[in-house]
Amino acid sequence: GDRVIDVGSEWRTFSNDKATKDPSRVGDTQNPLLSDGDLSTMIGKGTGAASFDEFGNSKYQNRRTMSSSDRAMMNAFKEITNMADRINLPRNIVDRTNNLFKQVYEQKSLKGRSNDAIASACLYIACRQEGVPRTFKEICAVSRISKKEIGRCFKLILKALETSVDLITTGDFMSRFCSNLGLPKQVQMAATHIARKAVELDLVPGRSPISVAAAAIYMASQASAEKRTQKEIGDIAGVADVTIRQSYRLIYPRAPDLFPADFKFDTPVDKLPQL
Amino acid sequence: MNNARTDRSLEGAMTPGIPIFSPMMPYGTGLTPQPVQSTNSLSILEEQQRQQQQQQAAQQSTSQQATQGTSGQTPQLFHSQTLTTAPLPGTTPLYPSPMTPMTPITPATPASESSGIVPQLQNIVSTVNLGCKLDLKTIALRARNAEYNPKRFAAVIMRIREPRTTALIFSSGKMVCTGAKSEEQSRLAARKYARVVQKLGFPAKFLDFKIQNMVGSCDVKFPIRLEGLVLTHQQFSSYEPELFPGLIYRMIKPRIVLLIFVSGKVVLTGAKVRAEIYEAFENIYPILKGFRKTT
User: Fold this and answer.
1) Residue of A167, A199, A200 best to disrupt the B interface, most CBs of B under 10 A
2) Cβ pair B120, B217 in contact under 8 A
3) From CA A84, how far away is CA A97, in angstroms rounded?
4) Residue B101 pLDDT exceeds 90
């Protein structure tokens, strides 16, 4: 018959009957996609009196490092998981990031750069590739690397892997920013519509999509019952409130055309704040 | 014929009107007599010119096409060019020379008109070797407009007002001159710095003057759809509004980097000779016309 070796984790890890004598225990999960095969053994901490020599030090002190060739890579994977955890990224993005990192690491063209910088840039690219881009500032918030360095590594990685990413749009960030501000779905949809129309009508040439999105959220929230200040929106979006002001000034003249047709105005269009 | 052309263009190129490699140097008598050096650099320059001419023989037709449309504006520019094969003013007519294949095949106007816009040079970076070790402290103390902060940077930063340039002078004797607006001005400024150093008592020479980078800018006078450009020219362009508001276009031939902005302004950099800037702009102009914003 077909017998398949299950390379998943040992599912009886937590059982404590016959703890030391269970012959079906075979080791940790294998990660063949990422490391070069995980067949090394580690010496664990001792239990019982015999594992300690005189003076109370444990015999077999050194836990020999497993795969020294990809110790740096394992370290980077751990760092990537930590970073992703801080902003609650799903497993598929983390896996994609790990794959990107592995490709970059094996290529060795970016060998001199800090691994953390490469990892942060890989995380940024993975989010982009999955269709849920995070701003550089959001990645900066969970990484110790500066935005400048992440940006540099980002461009280098795209060159090294010969890939490209789609351009960011205002709609990519709407759901996240609006939820963080606690805005209802109506306001979010209105803001998405405003931002899209503003870009279509070319009211904001040369402005970063994040700034346009922030200004659209400001306009939509100010027209609804859930008003938010520029400072609050700037905090969430990572843009300065003067930037929101600048973009808002550009979209304000055409405000009546930008709102969706079925929007319920709490504050009518002509009473929107004029900055 | 060729040689005569190079000699004449050299004369015009070095300093306006003054033959530089004669014993009567315009910059005072402090210079150590260096006839050997001078002729060396002269012959090196001639060689470079010949090489350039050979390399650019194929491009001559296109560059002359470009210069046709703009020759009204550029006689002064070409006067100061040393390393291009563009025709000298007054010596050749406006039409391309008989050897170009364009004239019999195409009608009066070529298929795509030249843009009529000439990029203006904004900055030239050049290096020169003064050929002797320098004591930066004495230079910093005795020269005017010199700053020296060894803890921050290991070179003397000297500035002159005419041409408005800045030079970094290193203790090895090598010097970087930045800020000039033309090749001629860059060379002139470098010579002035060399003279300053010489007057302070160092046996300064003027070896291996080389222009390392030229920056030009121009305006296409219409707004550009950068998103469209990055979609079609993905392998050359990089447009990240979060990082920089302009599109960074890395042209392969010639190897020039262009910064293209929504307003229609274009910055070209990375050129070693003026013709590369012009050629790069002529290459990008039809592409930009295709991405003109219609509203």
Assistant:
1) A167
2) yes
3) 10
4) no
Q: Could you tell me what percentage of chain A is helix, strand and coil, using 3-state DSSP and rounding each to the nearest 5?
A: 55, 0, 45
Distances (CA, A) of B23 to A173, B27, B35, B198, B200: 71, 11, 8, 17, 21
Taking each helix axis from N to C terminus, what angle separates A147-161 and A91-107, rounded to the nearest 10 degrees? Answer: 70
**Residues of chain B with C-beta less than 8 angstroms from the C-beta of A203:** none
Amino acid at B20: I
Domain A168-269 homologous superfamily, CATH: Cyclin-like (1.10.472.10)
Q: How far apart are the first and last CA of chain A?
A: 76
Give the model's pLDDT for residue B27: 46
Contact across the interface for A208 and B245, Cβ inside 8 Å: yes
pLDDT digits (tens, 9 = 90+) for B13-71: 444 444 444 444 444 444 444 444 444 444 444 555 555 555 555 554 444 444 444 44
Residue keyed to tokens 């960074």: B248
pLDDT at residue A4 in the model: 82
For tokens 């740096």, name the residue: A72
| Fold match, A68-159 / A168-269 | yes
The pLDDT, as a whole number, for residue A2 is 81
Residue A247 distance to chain B (closest CA, Å):
14
Residue type, B205: K
Each residue of A201-210: b (16+ CB within 10 Å) or e? eebbbebbbb
Question: B251 pLDDT exceeds 90?
Answer: yes
Closest chain A C-alpha to B115 CA, distance in angstroms: 24
Query: What are the structure tokens assigned to B295, written together?
Result: 């509203």
**How many angstroms away from the CA of A205 is the closest CA of chain B?**
7
- Average confidence (pLDDT) over B227-252: 95
Closest partner residue to A202 among B242, B245, B295, by Cβ? B295
Please give the single-letter amino acid code of residue B224.
Answer: I
pTM: 0.73
Number of neighbours of residue A117 by Cβ within 10 angstroms? 22
Mean pLDDT computed over A54-79: 74
User: Residue A167 is nearest to which of B235, B239, B263, comparing CB atoms?
Assistant: B239
Q: Rounded to whole angstroms, how far apart are CA atoms B53 and B120? A: 23
From the centroid of its chain, how far is CA A29?
A: 25
Residues B168 and B156 sit within 8 Å (Cβ to Cβ): yes
Multiple choice CATH, A68-159, 1.10.620.20, 1.10.472.10, 3.40.50.2000, 3.40.190.10: 1.10.472.10
Question: What share of chain A in percent tops pLDDT 90?
Answer: 68
Question: Where exactly are the structural domains of chain A?
Answer: 68-159, 168-269
Residue A92 has pLDDT above 80, yes or no: yes
* Whole-number pLDDT of residue A22: 52
